[in-house]
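Re: the 211-residue chain
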Amino acid sequence: MPPVQPTSGRIFQNPLLEALTKTHISIPLTIFYGLGIASGSVSVHVLGFSVVHTLSFYAAGAMFFTLIEYVAHRYLYHMGTAGSARKVRLQYVMHGIHHDHPRDKKRLALPPLLSVVLASLFMGLFRLILGPSGIAFGGGFMTGYATYLMVHYAVHTMNPPKNIFGVLWKHHNLHHYVGDSGAFGVSSPIWDHIFGTMPEDPKARRKVATT
C-alpha cells in the first residue's frame, strides 16, 4: 500500500475540472438529507401513504443503500486494473486518490453535480420499479447515502469516539491502513460479515501470537 501523502493531490490539470472534483461536506449533506426528508413528506402528504407504509419503504431503501455502498466500493472503486492504463487512471480518479490522500476534507464526497445526476437516476429507477412507493424507498436510499457521507467524513477527520460508534472508525481504518482487499462497508460492516470480507484485526493477531 502506498504511503499516505500529506497534500491533497491533483486529478486534472484544467483548474475548472479540478475544482469540480472537490466539495465542502455540508453541501451534499444538505442536498441528500433534504431530499430524504422531502421524499418522506411527499409520500405521506401528497401521495397519501400511511406513515407506517412510508417508514417501511424508507427503512428498506436505507438498508438497500448499505448493500449498494458495499458492492460499489468492492467491485467498482477497487476494480482490477491489471494490463490497462485506462482502468488504472479511472480507478485513481474515482477512488485511488482518496487512498493516497485520505485526510483531504474536500474529496470525502462525490462532487455535487455528479451526485445529483446519480441521485436523479436512482430515484427514477425506484419510481419505475416500485411505483409511487419508490418515492419513500428512494428517500431512505438518499438518507442512507447522506449518513454514509457523514460517517466517512467523521472517520477521516475526527478522533474515534469511546462508544459503540468507534467500531466504524476501526473498521474503515482497517481498510485504509491494514489492507484494501476487505472492510468495504463504511456506514455498516454487516455486508463484510455476510460476504466474508472482514479482515483480521492485526492487534488480535498479535495478541494470539503472544499467548
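The chain has nine helices and no strands.
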